[in-house]
Design a protein that fits this description.
Elements: E1 12-16, H1 31-39, E2 49-59, E3 63-65, H2 94-106, E4 112-114, H3 121-130, E5 138-144, H4 149-159, E6 167-173, H5 179-184, H6 189-203, H7 209-217, H8 225-228, H9 236-245, E7 253-260, E8 263-270
Parallel strand pairs: 1-6, 2-5, 2-6, 3-4
Antiparallel strand pairs: 1-8, 7-8
Helix pairs in contact: 1-3, 4-9
């Protein structure tokens, strides 16, 4: 690994962020995920900044945090008291926020910047494991209400130039996300079948770029798609990642593949 900043093109990551703050609390069921997140920075050059798309923020138009020092949003409930005192004092980047808005608008996508919005747990949980020193500026990008998969691929395409500018693009979600199933301890067979389809779509051989994109646009035709994602907000950060990567690294690597809370979950890296 190079220790330099912005050494060539940055990769694009779609990562599972786990159950609320549990990856930070030593939960045994999240230990594999926590180890995976800690190991990731060792496999590519240190980024100049991070642009993270969180499953936990939706706006009418894609919106990016633009404050210099965003506060944390503890957007989870029923966890131990220490969960509400986690710190991750990463700086924001108003400059990068404006760059993202400009790229989106160049692509014909109306966008906005929010100078007051903080970082939710989709950002601070995984990044506290990946970059615990909190010394890399971060911005967080929302999903767009309506959750249209093609629109989110287009958002990712607009962000592609950031990769050459030393910006690590991260999609933070879960490739399986059904709270009802998580808490009912159902058999992982259905999630495994959806996971196999997702791995083939993103990382399998023999598909061209149009086929991969078409499958992601029509994702709810996949095996057990709505069982795995009754609502798709945790999947769509992957669509943004695919869009950001498709022009020069359309075939992903599956870098995480484990059972999490009893269901099959994957993470992917492009580039």
């Amino acid at each position: 690994m190079s220790d330099g900043v912005n050494a060539g093109r940055q990769p694009v990551l779609y990562i599972p962020h786990g159950g609320g703050p549990l990856p930070l609390l030593g939960d045994p069921a999240q230990a594999g995920l926590a180890a995976f997140l800690r190991e990731q920075p060792g496999s590519f050059a240190r980024p100049r900044a991070i642009a993270l798309i969180s499953a936990h923020w939706e706006e009418a138009v894609p919106t990016v945090t633009a404050g210099s020092h965003p506060a944390l949003i503890y957007d989870y409930y029923g966890f131990p008291p220490e969960s509400y005192h986690i710190e991750y004092p990463a700086a924001g980047s108003p400059e990068l926020a404006q760059r993202i808005v400009a790229l989106l608008e160049i692509a014909g996508i109306k966008a906005a910047a929010d100078g007051q919005r903080g970082f939710d747990h989709g950002l601070f949980v995984p990044l506290k494991l990946m970059y615990p020193q909190a010394d890399i500026p971060c911005v967080q990008l929302s999903l767009q209400r309506g959750l249209d998969p093609q629109a989110h691929i287009a958002i990712g395409r607009a962000l592609t130039p950031l990769r050459q500018e030393g910006v690590l693009i991260v999609g933070s979600g879960l490739s399986f996300h059904s709270l009802r199933v998580f808490f009912s301890h159902n058999d992982p067979l259905f999630s495994a079948q959806f996971d196999a389809w997702l791995a083939e779509t993103c990382a399998g051989p023999g598909l061209d770029i149009a086929e991969r994109g078409g499958r992601l646009i029509d994702w709810d035709s996949a095996p057990h798609a709505r069982y795995c994602h009754p609502r798709e907000e945790h999947l769509l950060p992957l669509h943004v990642c695919f869009g950001a990567a498709e022009s020069d690294s359309p075939v992903a690597q599956r870098v995480f593949a484990e059972e999490l809370m009893g269901q099959r979950v994957s993470g992917f890296r492009w580039g």
